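Lab manual, section 2.4: Encoding a predicted structure.

Procedure: take the sequence of the chain (405 residues), apply the prediction step described in section 2.3, and record the output as structure tokens. A sample record is shown.
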Amino acid sequence: MHPRLLRIEDFTYTLPDDRVARYPLPQRDASRLLVWQKGNITDDVYSNIPAHIPEGMLMVFNQARVVHARLLFTKPTGSTIEVFCLAPHEQYADVPTAMQQKGSVLWQCLVGGAAKWKQDTVLTITSAAPAFSLSATIAERRPGSFILQLSWSDETLTFAEVLHYMGKVPLPPYLRRTAEVKDETTYQTVYARDEGSVAAPTAGLHFTTSVLDHLESGGVKKAFVTLHVGAGTFIPVKAETMDGHDMHAEWIEVTRDTLATITHSLDKGIIAVGTTSLRTLESLYWIGNKLLNGDTVDFNGIAVSQWEPYDTAQQHPVQEALAALMQYLNGQQSERLITRTRILIAPGYTFRIIKGLVTNFHQPQSTLLLLVAAVTGGRWRTIYQHAMDNDYRFLSYGDGSLLWL
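Recorded output:
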């Protein structure tokens, strides 16, 4: 069956409110770990995950760093307008470039209370330390979102710094609580580096420096990619079938050295830490495959479309596809690939890069659950029922799993 025809009602389950982890455990690697392999399930904890990863395998982590994407502006009347910064305007070459803008920036945003915001009204928020003001005006109204012109008085500050001082941690809406001081640390992986995500790559939240060191001492290699997680990751599928769902686009960044490491690790096997790492890795194959087919790759736009993996007739071996991508980077004398992907991974997808996935337990009727169903051959219900029966904690701050193909 083509994934377009999948009915989202077939990917739902009952998630009681008390199973959603509102807060993380005090110790990251104390989270429980469900291990699924060849139909067998075992229970463990993340501090023991090195025992489950064979020597020589490569684990790939998403090093995206969450920014303070929630801004609370005050109207002249005193009421509050909440702005959620989604992604930079298309005029910027990439997320890092947009985050380094000074004085002013255009940003795609969700706006809470937008009906109360008139087109010509300027909203303002001020910071005491350092002292500066941030203003917002509506530059463009789009279906479901706005393009805002954000300007600040201290033009020595970058937009990344403005968000740091003015914004709040954008906790997932299903946690139903405001961000607290400790979320500054707990809603960030220990290896987070590249600023730009509006949500944490939550599979990585369980890893401590100690666990990473134990993996390395056990002969497990690691590599880092970047996928700037967008708010679309939290949006349940509302269409009856997947054909009516538009997959959100997200920025990815992979260095040439990391691409070489991935290529050389295919024989030993690669594990994606998180659905975002998995989507990045599999997107690399489809970009290389497109290059081999002589098709135009829109590196400045969307390099991998939603249905491309299912509608492309000519599909080359993975080694050849990655070699073509490396050749492209060499020809461009570029040290990194930066583009966007809309890849949708659902049952019916054939994995090219990964042999396993580390991931949390996801929302019903979500594209993330579709991805898990693709990895497990559709046996996700057995896995999730085991987690439910054995008191696992769900969603971003919850427990997780190691799923083998």
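Check your result against the sample. The chain is about 20% helix and 25% strand.
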